Structures are given as structure tokens and as C-alpha cells.
Amino acid sequence: MSEESISAQFDVYRYDSARGGTPRYQRYTLDLAPHTVVLSALLRIRSEIDPSLTLRYSCRSAICGSCAMQINSKSRLACYTQIGPEMKRHGRVVVEPMRNQPVLRDLVVDQTPFWTQYDRIEPYLKPDPAHPMPEGRPTTMTPEQVDRFKETPRCIACAACYSACPAAEADPAFPGPMALAKLYRFVVDPRDGATQDRLVRIQPNGLWLCLRCHLCTEACPKDVRPSERIRDLKEMAIAVQGSTEHGSRHAVGFKDNLVDLGLLNEMKLVRQTYGAAGMLGQLPQGIKIWRKKPELLRKPHRIEGAEELEKIYAELDRKSEGTK
Amino acid sequence: MKLAYYPGCVAQESGKELDLSTRWVCRALGIELAEFPNFSCCGSGFVDEANEVLNVAINARNLAIAERAGLDVLTICSTCQGMLTLANLRLKDPTVKARVDGALKPLGIEYHQTVKVKHLLRVLTEDIGIPAIRAKVRRPLAGLKVGAFYGCHLLRPADEMGWEDGEEPHAFEDLLAALGATPVYYRGRVMCSGFPIQFVKGETAVAIAGRQVLDAKAHGADAMATPCPLCHITLDGYQNQASKAVHQPLEMPVFHLPQVVALALGASPEELGLSRHLVPTDPALRKVAVTAR
């Protein structure tokens, strides 16, 4: 089936870190079929118009994970993004390098921050010495065990999620969605013997910085759904270590608060998260807000039927105790 | 049109101005609000992190309350919208459903998953409709450039929320245009405000908020507007800290969604609790020739 070609305008980010200067956008206009993928267009620009255009790519089939970049501000694989819908929405295709990693040249970034965070989670199986893997025969897993990591092995480490992540953007300490999704993959692996240690070590300046904004899940070309696996990790981390970090104290405090009153007691929650001494640091801002919003200091009413929440919680808790 | 009004925690406490302005808009547009004093908090995403099944169960209880009354739910918070929608979705998993039913049944609560959860933004743009709202505008917000700030859980995961594109929505901008304002498109409009980690690592949270406000400002916004009171806490309540984090004055008024709608429909600032904001909204009001008494 032939498609009418469209005149597609590409505004491509150009910069060379070796020369410095300010980045600029270079415009190229090509007649292309709407189903053409951005990577094919960029390769045509490079071979026919401008051989200096620099980009990373390899398989052209959304398997190698090399060609992630920003296409009209969304982190995407260039080989997996057609120009037609982009032209329809934006009237042009703005192509920029991935975010959160320094630009080397044009569309190529230095991926050191991304891979350093990946190394941090020790992405390899650490068998339990007390239960060594059987020699010469495969270890077996139940279908239920396999089901727990059906999504994460699909990851091709393209870094589109890392590029899309506002937590990684604001705080280089944050491991990023891919590293945490990979961590999940080892934590739920029944052959791994370091689950508890992994869950304890990832918490300070790590797990709890996830904003659950789900931008990683939108960006992921393989539907790994990192944000949902990070949620799973948080619940497992609380199960292993209780509420020891600001993040886990806030989550558990929120739950206790809700089960008690049915509504959020904002002041009490802050106290639970920071402790009485830590509250002092929050005081100046608290006073600023309180002057405009005096309800802040008031204990909210208990909702009608709040006792139902306690009973729901107790019942779920009792049942889960029974299955352990 | 009658809906079960789910105000959420913030609008009942420190974000009272959101409740006030929601009621004003609903009165003006003929949306009848049924109130249920037994609605609980949605868990705000935090309870989901601590205990996924509990989160589904408490929200199944909320939805069951609306179901018994035969009403769909109106939310006014992106996070409430997300959590209640997620409860409906996760209940499709038979294992989750069985556990939740097991906890609700002894209390005589049953939920049959018939309730739709609708954020005010969706009700305004889909049920009331842009043309009907345009027809009710008494004070067009002409000349006011407004940057919409969606709040994550209203949009994403987009395949679960089942509404707008998760990264390129347009409902809020369409609405702002109908009110006579000029919508500002900027990358930060679909980003996180930083709120979820405000009490985990405050300096990172306000740095995130600062980036989004700065982005709106760089694209010419006179004001921002958000359908999420949690985003409002960070964008407005902590804007002084956000400004320090990005080393620039921001002075960006941040409206709640129903406040901008009500202003265009003719409400006075006093009726909308605008004096409760930490960042004064007067500069934006002056642009549309509204003066607070």
C-alpha cells in the first residue's frame, strides 16, 4: 500500500562538546511517507544532506536500545517513532538528545550517569551460599515465581526512562527507573540470596526519591512499567526493614493516620515523618503556610465510619499473616 | 447532573479555597453535589506504597458508598482521581478482588465495580462541554497567559487512566482557551511538582517545583493553574523555597482549576479564597481587570 508523502520539517539539536559554544537547532525538510520512522529520516539527512550529524544507533528494530532520544520532548526510540503522528500534532519534529546525561555531540550523550546507577544495584545474581545452585542441572521455578518478573527482563537498557525522569533530573543520587526495575528483577528472583540486603541498601538516597509520576512508564518502549515495579519495591522494603527512612516513615505514617481518622492529619504526619526534633526544621515554612491556612494546626474530624477502616485493615492483616 | 462529591483531604483542610471554588463552579453550571461524610482519604499514593491491597480496599469502600447511592464520583484532585481509578482497575484481578471482598463483606459492604470516577476537569470538558462553558463566560480572561499544570495521576499511566495522552494532553488548554485565556504550552505542564517527596527530601522536591514554574515563566505564563491540590501545595505553598532552589524570583500565581473557571464565569476573588494563597494572585487578576475589595 502506498502512502502520500508529506513534507516533514526536522529541527535537530546540534552541539559539539569538544568545541563548546551554544547549542543550535538545524532545520532539514524532507518529503517522506508518514510511516517513516525518525531514525530512517535522520540517517537520510546524514547520508544525503549533512554527513556531520552524529547519532547512536544499531539494530533499527527496537531491540538494541541505542537510538533513544527526545522526539518533540518525549523520550523515545528513534527507530520506533513514526513521523506522521508527530507532524500531525506538532507540525514539525524536534529531535534532541536524551536528558539527564551530558551531551557529547549532537544526539549522542555520555551515558556514564545512567550506567553508574545501574552498577550501583549490582545487577547480577547473588546466590545464597546456604542454598547453592545445583550443578549440572537447571534450577526450577514455579510459574507463579516466573510471573513475578515477566515484565522487567524485557528491558533493553535504552535509557528512555532515565531521560524522562524528573527525579533523576533534579537529584543525581536517584538511581533512576531502569536501575530500580532491574533491582526488582533480582529481588523477586527466588535464586537470589541477597534480597534483604538489596532492599536495605537501596533505600537511603534511592528508592524513596521516586516521585511515582509514571513518566518512565510512558517513555518505556518495552512496557516494563518501571514505576509500578518501584512501588512493589517500596512495599517490600517496608516489609523487610519497617519504617526507618523519611520515605517509608511517611508512607507508613500516612497509612496509620488514614486507618485511624479516615482523613489526613497533616501536622501529625509531618511529626511522624520527621520526629519531634526534625519538626523544628519544618517550622519556619510551617508558620508561613499556617498564617494563610490556619486549618493546618487543627486536628481534622474523624469521618463517619472510620472504625470500618480499622476493621478492613485488621482483616487484611490477619489474612496476610495466615498466608506467611 | 448529580455526582457524588469526593473532595479529598486537602480541600477539606488547608486547601479550603479549592472546595469553595468547586462549589461555586458546580452551582453555576448546574452540577448537583451529593455529599457523603463517610468518604475516607484516598491514600494519596502513600498508602499504595505501604500496602497495595489496603489501598484498593479503602477505595473500594469509598466507591461502594457512591454505588449504593447510584452515583458516579466527582474528584477535584489528580491524585484522588488516580487512586480511585486504580482501585477500580486492580479489582479486575480476581485475587485482589477476593482479598478486598473478604475484608469488606464482614462489614456488610459490597462493591460491584459500576462507579465511574471523574475529575472535575473531565466533567467540565466532556460532560458539560467546552461550548456550554464558553457560552457562560461573563468575564473572558483575555490577555491572561495561563500555564496548565496537570498533576501526574490524572494522566498516567495513560493506558490505565484511559483519558488523555500521558505526555501531550490538551483538555485543560482547550478549557483555558474557552475561558478566554491564552494557554501556555511548556514541557513542565505534564511533569511532577515534586510533592510526593516534599517530606522525603525537601530540597529535591522544591528544586523540581522550581523547574516547572520557571519553565512556565520562560514560556510567558502570567499564572499557572492546576487540577491537583497536592501540586498546589508545592507550587504555591513552597514557591519561596522553589525560588531559592532555582536561584530566581518566581512570583508565579498558581490557581486551582475551579478558581480560573469561576473567575471567567464572573465570581469575585473573595468567593474563591484567593487570599489564602501564599503567592499573591493580584498581578494575574489585574490583567483581567479584577480587583479584590
Number of strand segments of chain B: 8
| Cα shape of chain A | globular
- The helix content of chain A, as a percent range, equals 40-55%
**What is the distance, rounded to the nearest whole angstrom, between the alpha carbons of the first and last residues of chain B?**
34 Å
Features:
heterodimer, A: 324 residues, alpha+beta, five-stranded mixed sheet, two-stranded antiparallel sheet, 13 helices, B: 293 residues, alpha/beta, four-stranded parallel sheet, 15 helices, 8 strands, 10% strand, globular
Describe what this molecule looks like in 3D:
The complex is a heterodimer of chains A (324) and B (293). Chain A has 13 helices and 7 strands. With 324 residues, chain A is α+β, with helices and mostly antiparallel strands. In chain A, β6 and β7 form a beta hairpin. In chain A, α3 packs parallel to α7, α7 packs across α10 and α11 packs across α12. Chain A is globular. By secondary structure, chain B is of the alpha/beta class. Helix content of chain B is 50%, strand content 10%. Chain B is built from 15 helices and 8 strands. Chain B has a 4-stranded parallel β-sheet with strand order 2-1-3-4. In chain B, strands 6-5-7-8 form a 4-stranded parallel β-sheet, sandwiched between helices. Chains A and B meet through α6, α9, α10, α11 and α12 of A and α1, α3, α4, α6 and α11 of B.
